């Protein structure tokens, strides 16, 4: 069985939208996902940087994030033909461990928790594929990197890209 490693934030969790929601709430703004296409919130609002770090450090930030559309259904289908590992870089915000674990148990109960990997540097991951929104994580990765579209990476070129979980299904299952 081939092995697919899958990132969490911006791939199966909608963390970016929640950051915008928190920022808009605190600064009385109405920044939308479209406003951060090809950029990041802290690039267009440099003063937001420390607030973003604070939001991400809140123990509850990760617990009730929305699931990215179709990810549950497609990962369930993939898990019948591939070994699935959820690989999340969690060391920057160690307070997120428990919430991320509970979130995965709630939304992906068909995956064994033996297949959850909380790591620092993802180059340690040994898999045939890595689905991730950050192309940096493909450096040193020996398998095929697959860039999952997120607002911040929309202008990046030179990667195998998927725009949705439907496209992941097409790539692996058709
Ligand atoms: Mg990510």
What does this structure look like?
- It is a single chain.
- This protein is an alpha/beta fold and 174 residues long.
- The chain is 31% helix and 16% strand.
- The protein contains six helices and six strands.
- Strands 3-2-1-4-5-6 form a six-stranded parallel sheet.
- Helix 4 runs parallel beside helix 6.
- The relative contact order is 0.20.
- Bound molecules: magnesium ion.
- The site of magnesium ion (MG) has 7 residues, from loops.
Low-confidence stretches: none
Ligands, deduplicated: magnesium ion
Give the percentage of residues in beta strands: 15-25%
Q: What's the total count of β strands?
A: 6
Mean pLDDT: 95
Placed side by side, the strands forming the largest sheet appear as: 3-2-1-4-5-6
**Helical fraction:** 25-40%
Shape: globular
Distance between the termini: 17 Å
Radius of gyration: 16 Å
In short:
By secondary structure, this protein is of the alpha/beta class. It has helices at 15-27, 41-44, 49-57, 71-78, 97-107, 165-173, and strands at 3-6, 83-89, 116-119, 129-132, 144-148, 160-162.
């Amino acid at each position: 069985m081939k092995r697919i490693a899958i990132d969490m934030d911006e791939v199966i969790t909608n963390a970016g939208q929640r950051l915008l929601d928190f920022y808009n709430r605190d600064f009385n703004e109405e920044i939308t996902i479209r406003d951060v296409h090809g950029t990041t919130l802290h690039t267009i609002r440099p003063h937001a940087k420390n607030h973003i770090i604070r939001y991400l450090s809140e123990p509850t930030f990760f617990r009730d994030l929305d699931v990215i559309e179709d990810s549950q259904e497609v990962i369930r289908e993939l898990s019948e033909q591939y070994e699935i590992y959820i690989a999340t870089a969690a060391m920057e915000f160690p307070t997120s461990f428990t919430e991320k674990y509970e979130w995965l148990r709630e939304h992906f109960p068909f995956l064994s928790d033996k297949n959850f990997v909380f790591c620092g540097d993802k180059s340690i991951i040994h898999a045939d594929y890595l689905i991730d929104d950050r192309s940096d994580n493909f450096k040193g990765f020996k398998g095929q990197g697959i860039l999952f579209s997120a607002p911040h990476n929309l202008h990046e070129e030179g990667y195998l890209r998927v725009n949705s979980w439907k496209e992941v299904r097409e790539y692996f299952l058709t």
